[in-house]
Design a protein that fits this description.
Helix Hairpins; rod-shaped; mainly alpha
């Protein structure tokens, strides 16, 4: 009789312990499933952010390529124009100098030539200043391109940081799923 009572008590305690173990296991499983869901949601958000940053990076690259091509084209055009205008001005200047030497004997002709040369020299100065302005504008465009390239580098650093965060989140999700699988396997056993 005493043994039967003891056996019933042992089975009662075992039953309570089994039930408590099942409740604990169910609680942990529910908690891990909830954490896994949160991690999947976070992963989806991070992936969306990564896609957005990649889209912006492609747009920034396209914009930078267009700016660089435009800048290079403008610089090449201005340099070519500057060289042609400078050569033309040098040729014209040489011709004017030869004319002034030829007309030195005649004072009145020389005065006329001096006035003409002065006017043409002012035109040359104006033309050179205009060309310098165009060159300065091209240099400014090059500086803007450099700023855009720096912004692209910063954007690439942000994309790399997001990729790192995504890898960490995926690793945490994999660990949580492994825990669930182990607990499920233990319950089956």
């Amino acid at each position: 009789m005493a043994n039967e009572k003891k056996i019933r008590e042992i089975y009662g305690v075992k039953s309570v312990l089994d039930e408590a173990a099942e409740r604990i296991e169910a609680t942990w499983r529910e908690k891990l499933l909830h954490e896994t869901g949160d991690l999947r949601t976070e992963n989806a958000l991070l992936r969306a952010q990564l896609d957005e940053f990649n889209r912006k990076l492609v747009e920034a690259r396209d914009r930078n390529e267009r700016l660089e091509a435009d800048c290079n084209e403008r610089v090449a055009f201005i340099e070519e124009k500057f060289e042609l205008d400078t050569a033309s001005l040098e040729l014209e200047n040489n011709e004017l100098h030869a004319a002034s030497v030829r007309y030195l004997a005649d004072a009145r002709e020389l005065d006329r030539q001096v006035v003409q040369l002065h006017a043409e020299a002012e035109t040359m100065v104006d033309e050179i200043e205009r060309l310098r302005g165009e060159r300065d504008a091209a240099l400014k465009a090059q500086a803007e391109l450099s700023d855009a390239l720096l912004a692209q580098r910063d954007l690439m650093a942000e994309v790399a940081a997001l990729k790192d965060r995504l890898a960490v989140a995926e690793q945490r999700a994999a660990v949580a799923e492994a825990k669930i699988e182990v607990m499920t396997q233990m319950k089956i056993e």
